[in-house]
Amino acid sequence: MTGFYRQHGALVCDGVPLDAIAAAHGTPLYVYSAPTIAERYRAIDRAFDGYPHAIHYALKANSTLAITRLLRSLGSHADANSAGEIDVAMRAGFIPAQIVFTGVGKTNAELVYAIDLGVRSINVESEGEIRRIDRLSRERNVRTRIAIRVNPDVDAKTHPHISTGLKINKFGIPIGDVRALCARAGALPNVEIVGLHAHVGSQITSMEPLAHAARALVDLARELAADGTPIEHLDIGGGLGVSYDGSPVPGARDYANAVLPILRESGLSIVLEPGRHIIAPAGALLTRVVDVKPGGGADAAPDRLFVVMDAGMTELLRPMMYNAFHRIEPVVASGATPIACDVVGPLCESSDTLGKDRMLPGPQVGDLYAVLDAGAYGSVMASNYNRRLLPAEVMVDNGQATLIRRRQTLEDVLALEI
Ligand code: LLP
Q1: 267: left (phi over 0), alpha (psi -120 to 50) or beta
Q2: Is 348 a catalytic residue?
Q3: Is the pLDDT of residue 219 over 60?
Q4: 237 within ligand 1 shell (Cβ under 6 A)
Q5: What would the mean pLDDT of 194-204 be, rounded to a whole number?
Q6: Which of 41, 164, 199, 271 to mutate to test the pocket of ligand 1 (most atoms within 8 A of CB)?
Q7: Please, which pLDDT band fits residue 169 given cuts at 50, 70 and 90?
């Protein structure tokens, strides 16, 4: 068994007690399980085994250097969404040919960086961007590999804030426009269209939209080939979800079963950009109770408690931003009778909540809790609001908990200010 589970009643990460890790490194604290990351990466790789594919881990989900390096050592390639993420990928040892560069608003400086490196492909979002890449490449006397990000108008059936494949979303080029666009772009001397790309959303737990997007790419690739623009690869993006509440959801194998038969028709190699599916369950946020107080007012249930934690929206934005559910569990089971609680953060925002209506066993000041499945879009979305400091991060590997990012200090933050 890997990851977070109970041993003699206490939550551990790969056998290492979380209370010992919190005692050593303080809270709020991100803890990751290296074996879980490896297992989940390999599950996707195995599911697509036998068909030419490359997994480009989406750095945006979590790009702490030690995690990025671990993914590289497992054989992953990288999907970067900014010059910063490309730089992190390079520092982690990826070579440019292993990096795809996506993003809806790439600046000229970012494009030049990617062009000069010679990344595997720049996933382009508009005709304007293609023309900028062509001009910048001409100035450098190079030909740049691009993939056209297609907006297939597919409903990913996920939270609206993380749906990207509908025509009302800002992402990609409307699918109906792509053939004409490729005819024009094919005439540009300094870009080479090597791929088609679609990413229709995140935390997708129904395979149908993913299959639908794959179908759209395969059909379009066939049409483009007939038009005289043969391409090399289909990039099917990321999006495969995880279970945040323990209910069953499709896994890597279901995903491959849904999309591979369709993709196979194309004969083209595929690029995958999974983020969350690999890293979400591999991370937990440890937080301690700083205050417990009864809810007041006529509407509040008399037995409702506010449990105020030392972590909130600054450490995990997802509950506030997407109404996301994360399990919140006491690290050491107390045996006390569970009572209804709103688990909130310490920030001056009413929506600063980690979990509403939770049954927690007699929470006491100082108790340690774990917010589970926080490995993806947790640490990377943290902020300094209220002059709070970014949490430290620890990775457990081989039964050993190692600090992979120290806690930020106020000096770190103020170093930027004049
Ligand atoms: N590729 C592209 C082009 C993307 O935009 C994304 C995610 C991915 C790959 C990786 O998707 P994944 O496999 O992780 O679903 N902050 C939100 C999620 C935003 C996802 C943005 N794009 C959250 O916490 O739910």
Answers
A1: left
A2: yes
A3: yes
A4: yes
A5: 97
A6: 199
A7: confident
**Alpha-carbon distances, residue 98 vs 38, 142, 143, 359, 389 (angstroms):** 19, 19, 17, 46, 33
Summarised one tens digit per residue, pLDDT across range 107-116 is 999 999 999 9
pLDDT at residue 295 tops 60: yes
Q: What is the mean pLDDT of residues 51-71?
A: 99
Q: At what angle do helices 252-264 and 34-47 cross, to 10 degrees?
A: 30
| Ligand 1 pocket, residue 151 CB under 6 Å | no
Look at residue 297 in the predicted model and tell me its pLDDT. 57
Q: Name the residue at shortest CA distance from atom 7 of ligand 1.
A: 202
Q: How confident is the model at residue 335 (pLDDT cuts 50, 70, 90)?
A: confident
CA of 156 to the centre of ligand 1 (A): 12
Residue 28 alpha carbon to ligand 1 centre in Å: 24
Query: Looking at ligand 1, which atom is closest to the CA of residue 317?
Result: 24
